[in-house]
Amino acid sequence: MTWDFQTDPDFQQKLDWAATFVREDVEPLQYVLDSAYDVANPLFQRLVRPLQAEVRRQKLWACHLEPELGGEGYGQVKLALLNEILGRARFAPVVFGAQAPDSGNAEILARFGTPEQKERFLKPLLANEIVSAFSMTEPQGGSDPTQFRTMAVADGDDWVINGEKWFISSGPFAAFHIVMAVTDPEAKPVNRLSMLLVPADTPGIETLRVSSIAGHRTPSHSYFRYTDVRVPRASMLGAPGQGFAVAQTRLGGGRVHHAMRTLGEAQKAFDMVCERVISRQAQGGRLADKQMVQEKIADSWIEIEQFRLLLMRTAWRIDHYNDYLKVRRDIAAIKVQMPKLLHDVVARALHLHGAYGISDELPFLGMIANSYVMGLADGPTELHKVTVARQTLRDYTPSPDLFPDYSLPSRQAAADEKFRDLLEGLALEAAHG
Ligand SMILES: Cc1cc2nc3c(=O)[nH]c(=O)nc-3n(C[C@H](O)[C@H](O)[C@H](O)COP(=O)(O)OP(=O)(O)OC[C@H]3O[C@@H](n4cnc5c(N)ncnc54)[C@H](O)[C@@H]3O)c2cc1C
């Protein structure tokens, strides 16, 4: 039996190196660079490329990938430990070759791309020479894919795409889009959609707007219109109608990686508030000595530790089963808990910093905004709760009777029946002295 909470010493050394590197060399980037997607920016090239080279030398580049794609094949448990460190700095994912949406798009191309697509798009994507977009959400419906209207229609040797997509991360910088489009409107909802690889310079792609998310200066979420966008038949990734199955390739792992980094962000806010409450005086003593402050510190610590355990167990189960269906509930559960953890821990940290906490001199408001992003970007929390509940309830069977077997009278009757001989024997013995 193995039930272990230790990190092996060799990997711990790598984690220690990563923690120092992220703190000293990567975190400063976010104060001089704005967008982690703008790889053509000369300052990005100057500052980020040498750090990426150092990460490669340390064998920590794109660790989510298998060795044949240039990763280390570490598995999710090691990734969890590493990603918690990466969550402490905004540029850490790009410096370590693990930036969304590129990380998930690379997994799709690796699995479903043709050799020519891999050469033209996957290779430079893995090297972070280009970035990419995952184009799925539509203005009239994001959570519910049956609302998607973007169509891809076969025409000769091509697919012709028409429709609109919005909130597409990295849109202004992407060299290609992976577009989710309806290819068979008459099929069951799960078989209506397909994925297509569309180079960003294909005629017919128009940017209607680019939105900013709170806390980021550079707008980087595009609203695209596709008008008669024509791509060859071979642009389809996976079989027609298999868009959802292909999407799972990226969303399963990606959701866990987001959660791991969110944990790192929450831990960072917690470290700040711990330093603050032992430094600040109020009404004759340290903040840290007030019981209502201690309650907030205790609640945050407990929530962080609970979440880390749930995450690590999920990571372990992904490695152990290597079967998405077996870990669907675990992944949905961490998706539910992730925004709440970040929100609650950061809100306490903000509050305990007083006015300073809500000012633009501290990062808490941006972190709170990020907690809302985390509750939406991979689908809203409500949908993940539905998954947890459905997966849980299917292991139960309905009661055949009006009064359930677990009612106390039923239990009493069952116990009386089970022990009847013994109880009758004892009663007889008692009657006969
Ligand atoms: C920062 C950021 C980056 C993003 N990047 C991308 C990207 O790169 N590519 C992409 O395709 N999309 C992206 N998105 C979009 C994201 O996938 C959608 O926002 C998400 O799927 C929710 O869709 P919606 O915004 O249309 O919300 P809606 O579907 O309108 O839902 C709004 C709210 O309604 C409630 N709700 C919805 N359905 C249910 C239900 N069944 N039961 C109960 N309540 C429900 C929830 O509270 C939900 O938050 C991004 C979003 C953000 C915020």
Automatic annotation (TrEMBL):
The keyword Thylakoid does not apply. One of its GO terms (cellular component) is cytoplasm. Residues 15-129 form the Acyl-CoA dehydrogenase/oxidase N-terminal domain. It holds the Pfam family Acyl-CoA_dh_1. InterPro entries: Acyl-CoA_dehydrogenase (IPR050741), Acyl-CoA_Oxase/DH_mid-dom (IPR006091), Acyl-CoA_Oxase/DH_mid-dom_sf (IPR046373), AcylCo_DH-like_C (IPR036250), AcylCo_DH/oxidase_C (IPR009075), AcylCoA_DH/ox_N (IPR013786), AcylCoA_DH/ox_N_sf (IPR037069), AcylCoA_DH/oxidase_NM_dom_sf (IPR009100). Its cofactor is FAD. Keywords: FAD, Flavoprotein, Oxidoreductase. Residues 241-391 form the Acyl-CoA dehydrogenase/oxidase C-terminal domain. One of its GO terms (molecular function) is acyl-CoA dehydrogenase activity. GO terms for biological process: fatty acid beta-oxidation using acyl-CoA dehydrogenase. Residues 133-229 form the Acyl-CoA oxidase/dehydrogenase middle domain. Belongs to the acyl-CoA dehydrogenase family. Homodimer. This is Acyl-CoA dehydrogenase. It comes from Pararhodobacter aggregans.
